[in-house]
Design a protein that fits this description.
The complex is a heterodimer. By secondary structure, chain A is mostly helical. Chain A has seven helices and two strands; from the N terminus they run ααββααααα. Chain A has a two-stranded antiparallel ribbon. By secondary structure, chain B is an all-alpha fold. Chain B has eight helices and no strands. The longest helix of chain B is centred in the C-terminal third of the chain and has 32 residues. Classes of the chains: A mainly alpha, B mainly alpha.
């Protein structure tokens, strides 16, 4: 989920930019110029897929693809998320320049943690079902972690936000289950057809 | 060069403005901060303000949530209104300075601000990737819808995930061909980020 401009305090925003800059530096250091083309094309696929509206009952939502991004791009996820959010701001007039640091940090950090925790387990799973189970947990984990980070940033800005944060977290549970299912199917397809894809 | 300078300075202005407006909740301070967006609104007459409707709908939801969840209803309401005010002000500055330049303005601005070359190339190529792969994803989704109209539940997510995975593979193959083309044209030294 995105935080809009004007919600977070100056201190939180600056700290998030520091975290994002560190992540960007790490990501860019790990990418050589030749790899950049691949990262750009893969992040554009995630960007496009996350724009597709999925109907759930009466409402509709769009997926974030945080876990697949982390599992496929690995440490390069920070530059990829940064670029995607920047373009989202310019092309769809949503988001801001200052809050970009906080949004990149919450999303990319969750994706990176998913890669660190589940990457190896999924890569080394011999059975598809095992990989799918790990991928389901990874998909749900990434969404819950990013929502929790958003909640933590709001809590750091003002403790009175915490009641609203609890509602926000509860609203993310169904989304986490859907993300888990999609991640699990996506990983199973890649495991069967192109296992070298997983970072 | 003038465009690059304008884009860079616009990025800096919006960054600093958003930071300054986030620093205080004093009503008089916030009203003083509104001078810049008001001036820009009448001077530049920004066109992208249609999105403000959608943004304010979200703001309305946020104000109601804060008013109901805050320990004191009125304090929550005021907090929500302050946030909504900030969002609108920052968005008007954004619409007046950044949006007319489009994505080109962003990478020209980043180049002026001496951002790493890799990130500028990444933004440029992601833009191109979006335009190229959008067609493929769209046609795959349409054909899936035609093959199985009214798909529901887990099967729908499965189809969507499989389509995304196959487009990822296509994107990766396309990126290899693009890399070969870039190498044939002299590598990234000949990559014109000004174009």
């Amino acid at each position: 989920m995105h935080i809009s401009e004007g919600v977070l305090s100056g201190e939180v925003l600056i700290s998030c930019w520091a975290g994002t800059c560190a992540g960007l530096a790490l990501g860019l250091k790990k990418t050589d110029t030749k790899k950049i083309v691949r990262v750009a094309f893969l992040s554009s696929v995630f960007f496009l897929a996350s724009l597709v509206n999925i109907r759930i009952g009466a409402s509709s939502t769009h997926l974030s693809f945080l876990a697949p991004m982390g599992l496929i791009l690995g440490p390069v996820v920070f530059p990829a998320v940064f670029t995607a959010l920047l373009l989202q701001g310019v092309l769809f007039h949503f988001g801001g320049v200052l809050v970009l640091g906080a949004n990149t940090f919450t999303m990319a950090f969750s994706a990176l943690m998913t890669y660190i925790i589940f990457g190896r387990a999924i890569r080394e799973s011999k059975k598809i079902f095992q990989a799918m189970t790990f991928a389901f947990i990874a998909g749900a984990f990434a969404v819950i972690l990013s929502a929790s980070l958003v909640g933590a940033l709001l809590g750091l800005t003002d403790k009175n936000f915490l009641t609203a944060v609890k509602i926000l977290l509860a609203a993310h549970v169904p989304l986490a289950l859907i993300e888990g299912a999609v991640t699990s199917f996506l990983i199973s397809w890649l495991k069967k057809n192109s296992p070298e894809f997983l970072c | 060069m003038v465009e690059k300078k304008f884009a860079g300075i616009s990025l800096l202005i919006i960054f600093i403005y958003a930071l300054v407006i986030s620093l205080s909740e004093n009503i008089f301070f916030l009203l003083a901060c509104a001078v810049l967006p008001v001036l820009l609104f009448f001077w530049k007459k920004p066109e992208g303000l249609g999105a403000l409707k959608k943004i304010n709908l979200v703001n309305l939801f946020m104000i109601v949530t804060l008013a109901l969840t805050w320990p004191n209803f009125w304090e929550g309401l005021i907090r929500g209104l302050i946030i909504a005010f900030r969002v609108n002000m920052v968005y008007i500055v954004f619409a007046a300075l950044i949006l007319p330049q489009g994505a080109a303005g962003i990478y020209k601005g980043l180049k002026f601000l001496k951002a790493p070359e890799k990130i500028i190339i990444l933004i440029l190529l992601t833009m191109r990737g979006i335009y190229i792969l959008n067609e493929r994803l769209d046609s795959a989704l349409i054909s899936a819808r035609l093959r199985a109209p009214g798909l529901k539940g887990l099967a729908k997510f499965k189809v969507f995930a499989y389509i995304t995975a196959s487009i990822l593979l296509q994107g990766s193959e396309k990126s290899e061909r693009v890399m070969t083309a870039i190498t044939c044209r002299g590598g990234f030294e000949g990559f014109n980020v000004e174009a």
